[in-house]
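SEVERITY: medium
COMPONENT: batch folding queue
REPORTER: lab tech (J.R.)

DESCRIPTION
The queue accepted two submissions in a row. Attaching both inputs and their returned structure tokens so the on-call engineer can compare them side by side.

ATTACHMENT 1
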Amino acid sequence: MHAGSTCALAEAGSTALQTLLGFDYGKHRIGIAVGQDITGTATALCTLGCPNGRPDWDSISRLIGEWSPGALVVGLPLHADGSDSAMTRAARGFARELEKRYRLPVYSMDERLSSHAAKELQREAPGNDREGIDALAARIILQNWLDTARHA
């Protein structure tokens, strides 16, 4: 994996048919979470750096190979009124590229409050580094998607 990444590999036997990966896309870092729709839970996994402002596709490919997700969830950073921002368009482009590269279903999830919630969680659990916020935000995005999907 890229030298700037903070990702752990999956333990043997920890993947399942209902595994999902969630992404908090940013131009400098991408937070990643893993979840199971059978249990409805998500866990912060890691944060990848974006060398030269581009996603670390090699590391993302390794994670997808390791976890074998059935689907991917990308957070959409919308304005408070629900309209798109420049980052929303960038996140949609990232989602399209994920779909093209991995041929997996890619879902989007409103992430307007995820970064704020991640900062609050980080304050409650001291010792996390700055990169941890992105993985926590990815966990919140994926958890919100799982909660929404369970009630749909």
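ATTACHMENT 2
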Amino acid sequence: MAGLVRLSARQRITVNTTNKSLEELVRELPPELYGPVREGIETLLARHAQRAEAPAPPDPEPDAPVHSASLRDSISLREITGETVRDICRLSDTLTPPRKYMVAPNAVSIAQAHFEPHAWFRAIYAGEAPVGFAMLYDNPDEQEYFLWRFMVAEPHHGKGFGRRGLEMVIEHVKTMPGAKVLETSCGQGSGSPEGFYNKLGFQRNGKMLGEEVGLSLEL
């Protein structure tokens, strides 16, 4: 901290502080310490005054999550409406290379979903904030379940939102008729989400879907 000095053992002194003002105490210091110590005290007083004048941070809203742990607990899957679709589509804009090349834009996924009768898709929310998107190929008649798309906005990576969101998707699949396996696929190389899927129990199944490696999760 500028202007402050650390006293060595040789420089330490004993000062009678009884009934003396700060100014008087400083003046009793040895001449070589008077200037630096006074400058340091003035710096501290100025910083204290600045903090006192600064407006206090606003209290969080009653329902607003404060900590990452509580945010993670507030994860939900929600249907996408005409009022929210733009926000969900914009989440794709947060992805940067190479991650952005590993998943189709949400706008494309939502458009595809409206032409696929077995598509099941939801937005992932943390509290009231949209943070991701998930889509399944969900065919109970054939007892076939495939994680078609999954993404989390890049500013929210590493917060546990993706893991909890995917856990909720898996919980949904487990309620479906004859659901024993959930499959997916992902690209390889830099930016691949394969490690993320592995942590949730997905393993390679020997299939290749185009240039993507197939993964399976035993339910």
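NOTES FROM REPORTER
The beta strands are 75-78, 119-126, 129-139, 144-152, 181-186, 203-209, 212-218.
No errors were logged for either attachment.
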